[in-house]
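Before a colleague's protein record goes any further, I have to sign it off. Thanks in advance; the entry in question is below:
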Amino acid sequence: MGSVLETVMLVCFGMSWPLNVIKAWRSKTAKGTSVTFILLIITGYIAGIGAKLYIHQFNYVLIAYGFNLIIVLLDLAVYFRNAALDKKNIPEGR
């Protein structure tokens, strides 16, 4: 039952990340985005994956962690793309 509840939690979190990536991509700005927050989430997912590997619990929960990690890494890539766009759009003299 614990794995089922953990998977539900991961699916709920995981459903919000693609929406965030789409919103960030469309906005074309890194303003209002915290790279520290994204890195903390990535660290948490890596820790969750590490815990599953450490206890040799290879099940569907590990797949949910992996999927979420991939989406948040994509969000990080979009952040850096948007930060570059912000830098490029700064008017001369500032």
Observations:
- The mean pLDDT is 91.
